[in-house]
Every structure is written in C-alpha cells, then in structure tokens.
Design brief:
Chain lengths: ~350, ~300
C-alpha cells in the first residue's frame, strides 16, 4: 500500500518541456487514470513515476518517502506495457519469476507466488509456453502477472489494452477492475480511451500539453468538464459546441446565437456572469431530449440520422444552429422532417470564449 | 482474400508464347554466365588431380588421364615455403588459432557495444556511434604503421595476441553497427520491464538480450569467419613468423621462384585454403544474404 505524491514535477527532453510543474496526489489504494490525447505527456509522466525517465525538477514521494532518484527496482512498483514486453526467449513461468530470481528469493517462495498469480489470472495452463505461442490477451495477462508476483505496492499501466481487439479489451478491463478490488493496491493507469478511463477510475486526470486540465471523479469530469478541451475530449458521440452570447433578458440570462435562443436561468453558474458576455455552449447529444409535449420544446429540421444500435444520432438544424442529438428507436425521427426536442440546460456547459474555462 | 485468389489464378495461368521464349532466353544467359565464372574453378580442380607430366602437356581443360591425389597430399603435408617443407597444415593450424578468439571476441564486443549504444543512451552516444561508423570507412592500411609502432612499444609485436587484437579492433565498427541496428528494432519496453524487475546492465545483456541475438550472431559469425580467414595483410604484418596464417603460407608456396613451378600442388593448396570460407558460403547462403540486407556488409 502506498500513496503517491508528485510535487512541482518537471520533465523535459532537451529543451522541450513534456511535463510542466505538475502537482498530483494519489491516495493509498486509489485507481487514478491519466487520460489525454497522444503526445500529452501522460506516458512520460508514468515512466517518471516508475523511475524510467529522469525528472528535471520537482519531487516524487511514495508514502512521504522521496524516491525521485531511486532505482526502478527499489520503488516497489509493477509496470504493464502496451507492447506486453514479455521476455521472448523465456517461458511464461520464467517470465513471471525473473524479477524474483534476480532478487535471490528461495525456490519455494517463488513457486508459491507464481502459482498464486497464475491462478488469479487463469494462466496456470500456459506456464510452460513461450510468449510467441500466446494470444494477445494471454500475453497481457502474463504481463500483469509479472507485476503481481513482485508484491508491488503501486501498479503502473501504460495503455495496456490498446493492442487488443474490442471484445478482449472489454473483458480485460473488467479483469483489471476486479484485480483492483481484490488487491486494493494503488493503481495508475494511462490511456487515451475515454471508456477505459470512465469505467476504471476512482479519479481521472485529464491531461493536455503536459498540464492536468481537470482532476475529478469520472462523473464530474464527464458532466462538469472544467474547460472546452475536457468537454470535447470526453464523450462519444462528441459534445456539440455553439459559439454565442449570454444576454440579460429582464432578470434572466439567455444564450443566443443568431436566431437560436436558450434560457440559461437554471444553469448553475460557477461565478457571477454579466449579460453580454460571449460564451461557448457545450451540449452533449444525450442532453437534448425528444420533447413529450413540453411547453419549451423547440423544433428542429432533421437533416441526417445515424442509427447506432441502441439509439439513433440525429443531426438537426435549430434556428440556424446545427446540433446532434440522441433519439430512441421508436421516437419516429426521420430525415427531412421536423422533430421537437427539449434541452436540459442544467446539464449543459458554458465556457468562456477566450480562455475556454467553464463559467 | 481477393488478392490471394487473384495471385493463385495468375500463377496457374499458362505462359504465353512470348513469355516461354523470354524464360528460355533468361535461363540460357544465366547458365552461360555461371559456366563462365565456374571455368577457373574447373581448371583448378582438374589440374590439381593431374601429375606434373600431364600438366606440362598444356591441355588445361582436359580431364586428368591418371587421377591422382598426390598433389593434394603434398600441398597439405610437404609443400615448401622457403626452407621448411611442412605443407599447409601448419598454416591451417595457425589460421584456426587466430580465427577462433578473433571471431568470438569481436562478436562479443560488437554485441556489447550495440547493446550499450541502443539501450543505455549516455550523453554523446550518437557522437560515439558516428565515430565508430567513420572508423569503418577509413582504409585500414592507414593504421598499420602506427599499430606496428604501438605493438613494438608494448612488446607484443609479431605474436598471436597482436594479430588477434588487431582483428578484434578492425572488426569492431562493423560488428557494432550490425548489432546496434538489430537491437534498435527491439521494443524498448522490454528493457524497461527488465529494469523494473531489478536487472542491471550485465543481467539484461546476458539473460535477455544475448538469447535474442542468435539470428544476428549467426550473420556476424559468417562475416567475421570469412573476413578473418581471407585476411592476408594483417596476418603477414602482425602475426610473426611462427603464427603466419594459411593465406600467407599459400602465397609463399605459390610464389616460390626457385625450381619448377608445381602447378598441380599450387592449385590444390589454393583450393584447400579457400575451403573454409567456401563451406561457410555454401552452408549459410540464406543467413549471409540477411547480413547484407541488414546493411552492415561493406565491399
């Protein structure tokens, strides 16, 4: 068990700053996901926590102990890589026990630990095989097993599921979640896949350009994105964005973009907003609901529909503003017809036009 | 699937009239070319099986009338180089003594260099590598005189260690290049995983990297065996009188200026000397091509 604390961390390659003065505290037993597009520095940050990349400033603390310059093997970590990184010339059993053999642990203990990890991951029947004789999913199980036998306090996952096909990914995702429940270890997980992030995490740190944009629970990151980037990075189908203005109408605030008007008086503004302020409206497709005879319903002209299985994504035009919205299979939404919807403004987001931060 | 089906039918399609003639032309041309290049080997072999009386007739293409192995026996056991008449066997032994340590150590050091340069990137690793590369383009004749002086100073000039060290040094750039290129194709995560498992520089090299190096090591063995066995100049200069390699001895036998030229013995001696690289080429053609393809074999 270990907590991790990063203080004012800086990582750079040559003159290029990859991670900029980053502060992050991860609780003991927490599952933290670092989420971001490729090149945002999340993998580099993970490598630095593992001791594989030298930091250029700041400190890394495990349980309040400074490990900034400690050797990877002395940090009590287990790491799982995207490319599995199994030793190709060794059998699964040797792969699992390699670290223990180096540490000079006695045979009986090694055997016991390997057996335990293999049973936990259901790879006992594969122990004599070489990695080349395993499927992708089996290889990644072995890689996880290699981290398990080390009795790691902190598990680092570097996009472990990215090389697997969709079905296996879902399966192994569940497996990792179960593992976390069983072991209660601290886990730090890097991914660019929002579904993995949302399903696995206790907290998600959304990163961009080496800076954490938002650090919060999956629900809050999804429902109350801290800025425009987070809003559009999470969610599929993607968030609608409309640029416009918040106008005072009596004592109410109304969002306008051309002829499009949306009453914003029920929106929980984080700060006091004056009328006349320019803003970007962020609206998730599932927050535009088919109207069931409501008074505030607005009519849109449907231009295109995309059936997505459980629901249908419709692209419609509302008073000159194009929005995508989800409708049920039985709602009778067809292309080139009009369709009434209501917009749930409490679940919408308003962002500042210049800074992109949430209002 | 589509493309597979297509190519399958394409290979079954009967050749057109023109294509058949094209094929015949190509194979005829290749056959004639092969015969032309094999001609000297043929002449060498038939001459080596003739007696000197038969050689004097000057019919170099005719098959031997009285097949005889005398020339081969003489070349191996009693051909004279200057005053010693002990044949090529001494040179063969010397060449083996030079070859084995030179090949083993040059490959080992090359692998170690390549490993260090691709996984343990120190500051200036690229500059170091560039210098090594440069070394493989400088003609080695340039270094002979400085090396002679150096060995003379250290007192090992004209000995087995001198020639072995020389071969190791001159093999280093190409071996390093070969192994570095191979290792740069390995996933760097492998190396990171090993570090987390607690393996250090040597442990990673011995337990993980070396076992994965078998294919490229075979290529390296082929290159080094042929290069070191065929070497003449370095052996002549550095090996000393007692350790002259087979190539130098062959030259001494063939270039004797006194008495009658024993063409049959010369031919047999030449074939004997080239037997080792010849065998290597024939047995390992596939691997050798791989070595060339990996860009590490220079002219």
């Amino acid at each position: 068990m270990s907590s991790v604390s990063l203080q004012n961390l800086e990582i750079s390659y040559g003159n290029v700053a990859i991670v900029k003065s980053l502060d992050l505290t991860i609780q003991d037993g927490e599952f933290l996901v670092l989420l971001g597009p490729s090149g945002c520095g999340k993998s580099t940050l993970l490598s630095a926590i593992g001791g594989l990349v030298d930091v250029s400033g700041g400190r890394i603390l495990f349980n309040d102990k400074d490990v900034t310059w400690a050797d990877p093997k002395d940090r009590g970590i287990g790491m799982v890589f995207q490319s599995y990184a199994l030793y190709p010339t060794m059998s699964v059993e040797r792969n699992l026990s390699f670290g223990l053999r180096i540490a000079g642990i006695d045979r009986a203990t090694i055997e016991k630990k390997v057996k335990w990890a293999a049973e936990l991951l259901q790879i006992t029947h594969l122990l004599d095989r070489k990695p080349s004789a395993l499927s992708g999913g089996q290889r990644q199980r072995v890689a996880i097993g290699r981290a398990l036998v080390r009795d790691a306090d902190i598990f680092l996952f570097d996009e472990p599921l990215s090389n697997l096909d969709a079905k296996l990914r879902a399966e192994l995702r569940l497996e990792i979640k179960k593992l976390h429940k069983t072991l209660k270890s601290t886990m730090i997980y890097v991914t660019h896949d929002q579904i993995e992030a949302l399903t696995l995490a206790d907290r998600i740190a959304v990163m961009k350009d080496g800076i954490i944009q938002q650090l919060d629970t999956p629900l809050n990151v999804y429902n109350k994105p801290a800025n425009e980037f987070v809003g559009s990075f999470l969610g599929s189908p993607a968030m609608n964005k409309v640029e416009g203005q918040l106008v005072a109408d009596g004592d109410r605030l109304v969002f306008t973009a051309g002829d499009f008007r949306l009453d914003a008086s029920h929106y929980p503004f984080a700060q006091k907003v004056e009328g006349g302020r320019k803003a970007v409206l962020g609206l998730r497709p599932e927050h535009i609901l088919p109207a069931k005879g409501d008074a505030q319903a607005i009519e849109g002209k449907v231009s295109l529909i995309e059936p997505m299985g459980s629901s249908i994504l419709a692209w419609s035009n509302f008073d000159g503003v194009g929005l995508s919205h989800l409708v049920g299979q039985d709602d009778g939404c067809e292309a080139d017809r009009t369709f009434p919807v209501t917009i749930d403004v409490q679940k919408a987001s308003f962002f500042d036009v210049e800074t992109g931060w949430r209002l | 699937m589509m493309s597979q089906a297509k190519s399958a039918t394409a290979s079954k399609r009967p050749l057109t009239y023109q294509e058949v003639w094209g094929r015949i032309g190509i194979y005829t041309f290749l056959g004639v070319l092969a015969l032309f290049f094999l001609l000297p080997l043929y002449v060498m072999l038939v001459t080596s099986f003739k007696s000197m009386d038969e050689v004097r007739l000057g019919l170099i293409f005719s098959l031997p009338q009285h097949f005889s192995l005398d020339a081969w026996v003489k070349a191996w056991t009693s051909a004279c180089t200057g005053l010693d008449c002990t044949g090529l066997q001494v040179g063969f032994g010397n060449s083996v003594k030079i070859l084995l340590p030179s090949v083993v150590f040059s490959i080992l050091f090359g692998a170690l260099n390549g490993y260090a340069l691709s996984f343990w990137k120190v500051k200036g690793a690229n500059v170091l590598f560039a210098c090594l590369l440069l070394g493989s383009f400088v003609p080695y004749q340039v270094f002979i005189y400085p090396l002679v002086r150096f060995y003379a100073q250290t007192g090992i000039y004209g000995s087995l260690p001198a020639i072995v060290i020389t071969h190791i040094i001159f093999g280093m750039p190409v071996m390093t290049l070969l192994f570095r290129n191979y290792y740069s194709g390995l996933p760097v995560e492998l190396f990171k995983a090993a570090r987390i498992d607690g393996a250090g520089f040597w442990k990673i090299f011995i337990s993980i990297v070396l076992p994965m190096s078998v294919p490229i090591a075979i290529v390296a063995v082929i290159m080094q065996v042929t290069a070191i066995w065929n070497d003449f100049l370095l052996g002549l200069v550095f090996a000393g009188r007692d350790n002259l390699p087979m190539t130098v001895q062959l030259n001494n036998i063939v270039n004797t200026t006194t008495g009658e030229r024993a063409y049959n013995v010369n031919m047999a001696a030449t074939v004997l000397t080239s037997l080792v690289p010849l065998t290597v080429y024939l047995v390992s053609g596939r691997w050798f091509v791989r070595g060339i393809a990996s860009g590490a074999v220079k002219g």
